[in-house]
Amino acid sequence: MTRSSPEVDTIVFDVLGTLVDLDGAVRAAVRALVPDADDDRVDDLAARWEEHVGAEHRRVIAGERAYATADVLDREAGRLVAERAGATDRTAADEVESPTRQVAAWPDSAAALDRLAARYEVVGLSNADLTTLLRLDARAGLRWHLSLSAELAQSFKPDPRVYRMALDRIGRPAERTLLVATHAWDLRAARAEGMRTAYLARPTGDPPTPDDAFDHHVTSVDELLAVLLDRPSTGDPA
């Protein structure tokens, strides 16, 4: 489903979950940590990792904790998971402490960025810290005109400061900048800052509610490409 929206100059992609399979990377790291665990046990441990990271993001945004990089929070979560699992394998524990650096791209991500970059300014905006984002982009084959981390705002999405930082760096009006994400919470925050929004369905995303009013709802990157590339870009060549 697509709503009417003006032309955009810049397409900003969320990274974790939207272009790369973070959930799969966390579960793979947990399985390596506890090889004999059944699916329920893996789900429980992976959920513990994700809960810690999410909770600490919220604490930073609320001012209850000083900013710490995403890598620090990932390692905290990994240690909690290793302790809960009773794991003693140091190599496997290292992997569950930094699954973001091991994450793989969804199969269609790299090709989509290449096609869009020929017509639009393409930007990545991630909660991953700058160093982790560098390693992740290289591993997953993600190529951007600009890669931005929430670290630059010393916070995490959905803090409004992150989107304002991105808009300042891009130098485009919010209404001519489109955020693409699989997380409805991310899109709501971007929309509140005046950005255009596109929900991209992924197996582990956060789907919109009936009350959400995003500009585009697409079920695949190919559908997003068809929607965007069907219209002429009016932005300067990137």
Structure description:
The protein is an alpha/beta fold. The protein folds into two domains: 10-21 and 103-229, 3-Layer(aba) Sandwich (Rossmann fold); 22-102. Helix content is 45%, strand content 12%. It is built from nine helices and six strands, in the order E-H-H-H-H-H-E-H-E-H-E-H-E-E-H. It has a six-stranded parallel β-sheet with strand order 3-2-1-4-5-6, sandwiched between helices. The longest helix has 23 residues, at 39-61. It is globular, with a radius of gyration of 18 Å. 44% of the residues are buried.
Sum up the structure in keywords:
single chain, alpha/beta, Rossmann fold, 6-stranded parallel sheet, globular, disordered N terminus
Number of strands: 6
- Quaternary structure of the protein: single chain
* Average predicted local confidence, pLDDT: 90
Global Rg = 18 Å
- Give the N-terminus to C-terminus distance in angstroms: 28 Å
CATH class of the largest domain: Alpha Beta
Strand order of the largest sheet: 3-2-1-4-5-6
| Amount of beta strand | 5-15%
Poorly predicted sequence stretches spanning 5 or more consecutive residues = 1-5, 232-238
Give me the CATH fold name of the largest domain: Rossmann fold
Q: What share of residues is helical?
A: 40-55%
| CATH homologous superfamily label of the largest domain | HAD superfamily/HAD-like
Architecture of the largest domain, according to CATH?
3-Layer(aba) Sandwich
Principal-axes geometry comes out as globular
Class from helix and strand fractions: alpha/beta
Describe the biggest sheet? 6 strands, parallel
Order of helices and strands: EHHHHHEHEHEHEEH
Number of domains: 2
User: What is the tally of helical segments?
Assistant: 9
